[in-house]
Structure formats: structure tokens, C-alpha cells
Amino acid sequence: MTEVRVGLIEFGKALNDSVALPGLGELPGGQVSLGRAVRGARARLKRADRILADNLRLGIMVRKKFFSSDVEPVTDAGFLKDVFVAVGRRDLGNGDALELYTDDTVGPDMSRQDGVAQVVAPAYDELTGFRVQVLVRDGVLRFGALTAFSRGGQPMRVLGLFGPGPVDELPAGRPGTVLLGFQCDVPPLAGDTLTAFDEPSHDHFERREGVAVVHGLNDLGNGSVVAAVEVPEGRGSVFTVGTRARVLRPAGTTFNERSTVVASDLRILSLARGGVAVRTNGGVRTFTVGLAFRDLRQNDVIEAYVPADAVPLAPPPVVAVSVPLVDVNAASGPELAQLLSPEQVAKALELRQRQGGFPDVEAFGVAIGLQPHEIVRLRKRATAGRVALRETGVRQLDI
Questions:
Q1: For residue 79, how many C-alpha atoms fall within 13 Å in the half-sphere facing its CB?
Q2: How far apart are CA 98 and CA 100, in angstroms?
Q3: Which residues, in sequence order, are CB contacts of 348 under 8 Å at separation 6+?
Q4: Would you say 189 and 149 are in contact if contact means Cβ atoms under 8 Å apart?
Q5: Pairwise CA distance, residues 296 & 213, whole Å
Q6: Consecutive sets of 10 residues in the chain, 399 residues long: mean pLDDT of each?
Q7: Which of 13, 50, 194, 273 is 20 to 30 Å apart from 357, CA to CA?
Q8: Would you say 323 and 265 are in contact if contact means Cβ atoms under 8 Å apart?
């Protein structure tokens, strides 16, 4: 299964910043600003333009009851709903966001064992899910650690650690209680082994540089596609030649929108503004992007990113992408729209139908009212194929 983005929870937008759960403490509150929040989904912690943590789990999710200070557990929450969650992090604050996703093929790194605990007695609560009394046999068990049962099931996060009060870790030989919430695909049993895994330390996993929505496409026929894109209002827009990109394909409506990652680890081959090649889009909202991905479609989203371990880019050479010239005597309206305004396209089509075509690009530019500097720029992007002019009936000659 390919990664599917199922929702986004933004903190600082809910009516209440947090809510207190008995025996657990404060849960941070956020608002579902895209798609749906589904209990048990994997999550990434996004702060500004950085992904600080990955493979979190939406282990507990509650909502406040109407006209009451009490809370109730929920399995999913829709667009613009306020929720209070536990994911194994204590530092969620205003401005943070949880990017929720599903991906059954790419899992977390579980190659380094950090601690082993024996389950002594499991328990279940309708509000906070499963908790297990454990005895740590080896290593250490930490709050927020990535764990798994020996009998299988999805990896889980330690959502709370008590011994008897809240603690940050349990060393070998010490008993305690582990809160797992609603992450357990396999209900815990006495005698189970709970293994904790060590994760490499990262300041951040990747930096998100910008997103842009595809509005027009030009397949170059050599495995590359040039896309006309626009940056959504309020979103980042830094694109640079040579950086990585992924392509997301949205499906559904704003109330239940999902986006499937259809390509990743692509490279931005070229950028252009107004027909002129550039190294960076310079923060402008409309430009063109060249990618080696022929399945790109209208309304796809291009997400530019830089992994934390990426080698800093030396000033990369601009990859020359050969863009076919537009034949003003044969091009369709949408093809002419790559060069001209809607009014100029309408005038060009009308003149072409009336007189049969244009002898050259200069004559075409003069006929539709372009300024001299605009005609000079048009020469680099257009050509005039041979036609039989109606006035004389004589075909053009290539000189």
C-alpha cells in the first residue's frame, strides 16, 4: 500500500488548548483542518517547515461533550472538529501540526533493541484504552518509545509511563505501568513480551520547502514533463533546481480529502518564470516546473523537500529542458494560452481562421497587437508553420 495522507490536526486552532484526563494529565487540543483524524493512524509532527518526528501513533483521541466539561472517546473526527490526542510526545504546542497517514509497506526502523519488559497484567479502560503492568527485564523502557509485542501486531508508542506516578523511564528490574491506548491490534495478555526499540537521534527528518498545484502540462516526450503550477494561498513556495520532490494526488472533498503519494524522491529538473529559466522560483506563486515523471496530472500537488541527511546542494547547473516551439498556425487555443492572454488567443484564432495563417512569428505578433519587446520574447517560444495564404494562394518558401 502506498502512503496516503488522511488528515491534518493543527494545534492552536481549537477552542481549548488542552483537557485533563484522570490519571493521565493534560492532553493537547487541536482542530482537524484537512481530511479526517482516525484513531490509530500514523502521524508526523510538523513544526513550521520541519518534520520533527515520524512514526507516531494517534493512540488516544477524545472530544469534549456538548454543553459539558466531560470528555468522550472517539474513533474518528471530521473537518473542523476539535480533538484532544495522545501520540507519545509531551511537547505539542500552538503552531504544531500532526500529519496523519497510512502506509503498510514502509514501517519504522526496528533493528536496534533498547529494552525488554514482561507483561504481568493487562487492563482496559473505555476512555484511554489498554494499559499493561510490566516488569522490565533488560535495558530501559522510556516514555514515547517505539514498542511491539512478541506476538506481532503494529508498532506502538508508549503514551504514558507510571511507576507508580508519571515517570520518564523504567530501568531493568523495575515494575511499572505502560499506557498503550487504542494502538493494540493484538490484545495484550499476561506473559507477553513488550520490546522497546532505540531510534536514531534527529533534530528533524526533513524540511518542507514548498507546495504547488499543477494547472497545465506539457509532455516533452523524453520522459520529462513541464508543469505550469500555482502555489496555494498561505502555503510555502520555495522551489530550487536540483532539490527533491514528491507528487501527491488528492481524492475526495475538503471534508474527507485524502492524498496518495504517487511518486517520491524525484528531482526538480528545471524552473521557469515568464518563459525564462531560473534556479529558484523566488517565492512567486505561478511558475513552471520540470520533472522526470510522465504520469503527472492536473490538480496533482508537487511537494518540494530536503531530507535532514541530504548533502547541501552546490549551485547546480540548470538542466536545459528542450521545450517544443508552439506553431501559431496550428496550435490549439490551450496551447496558445501558454504564450498569450485570453484576449490575444481569441484574436489570434479569429485572424487565423479569416486569413488562413501567418507568414512568420513577427507578422503574427504585429497582427494581434504585441509590443516589439513581446515579439522578441515570442521568437524563442513560437514558430510559424508553412500555410497557403488565402490572399495569394502561394505557399510560403523556406529561405
A1: 9
A2: 6
A3: 328, 336, 340, 364, 367, 368
A4: no
A5: 11
A6: 90 91 89 93 94 95 86 93 95 95 84 94 95 96 95 92 92 96 93 94 90 92 90 86 95 82 95 89 89 93 90 52 78 88 90 86 88 80 75 43
A7: 273
A8: no
